[in-house]
Amino acid sequence: MRTGYRALAGLALLAGLVGCSGLTQVQDTLSRFDEGAHAAAVAQMSFFRAARTAECDAQFYGAAYDYAVGNAPAIDMRGTCTPQRLTDAQLAIRQDLMNAITLYADQLQALATTDDNKKLDSNAQALAGKINGLAKSGGLRDASIAGGVEAAVIGLTGMALDNTRFNDIRGAATAEQDNLATVLATLKRENVTMAAGIDSSLGTIRAEIATVLAKTKERAGPSVFFDVARARGLLQRANPFGVSASAGMTDSGPAPDSVAARLNATLESLTVANHAIATAGTGGIVAAVNDLVARAREAQGLDAALNP
């Protein structure tokens, strides 16, 4: 009886959220919010992996340069690399942050269902429990991840673990707004740092190639033209985003059309969409979620470009 009453109360609150637009619309909107969160998470992790790839390429070409100019007696052609800018352990932490966000979005969508049972499946519950436990034990903290982020993750995953904390969507979105914003703000700052790292790595490779080409020209004369053409292709391949989509850093941060800036805009739209769910009317919610989905689909294009 109590479960049935709770289901009826949830439906009433859900109807209050959507007004005359109907239950189906809000369910669709929450489904799209969930879709956008997952797409953003995939693109974010691809960006992190691209930063590691750029660092490893810079390490290999740096070793090749040292070998070419006589600063090293040998070269390891395997290109073995241990990224330092974002280690394996740090990458795993960032994956947990993204999982916390998508689990929250999954649970928010579940609250919009008409089922009495609004729990996530057993795999999602297990993942939420793992991340929640890591955050409580300090396992998600490193030089860039502060305790406040861990507290935010505890809140986001706690909602996924205990779906009875909230009877309605607005209450859940309101309660978790600051937690979501805290995690996303940290990720956006890291994207700026990673973009600078990628540009630095590419700049190092360019400088080394230019030095070698200058020495080649002294010896080969005009035929260095063909070496220059090959070097351009090498530099393009070393850029994880392609020749026309570099990290794009300026003095004030990522260029507006850069990969990092577009990814950060996607993360910001996730914050805005959640805030709209918490505070706006139906039209505002739909508009904010549509913007999130549009940006997330662009982010999916980024992921496809990085993983051909």
| H/E topology pattern | HHHHHHHEEHH
Strand content: under 5%
Instruction: Specify Rg, calculated over alpha carbons.
Output: 24 Å
The main pleated sheet reads as: 2 strands, antiparallel
> Rough shape?
elongated
Mean pLDDT: 84
Total number of helices = 9
- Estimated helix fraction: over 70%
Unreliable spans are: 1-16
| Strand segment count | 2
Strand order of the largest sheet: 1-2
Structural class: mainly alpha
How would you briefly describe this protein structure?
With 308 residues, the chain is mostly helical. It has 9 helices and 2 strands, in the order H-H-H-H-H-H-H-E-E-H-H. It has a two-stranded antiparallel ribbon with strand order 1-2.
Describe the structure.
The chain is an all-alpha fold and 308 residues long. The protein contains nine helices and two strands. Strands 1-2 form a two-stranded antiparallel ribbon. A hairpin with a 2-residue loop joins strand 1 (249-250) and strand 2. The longest helix is centred in the middle third of the chain and has 52 residues, at 169-220.
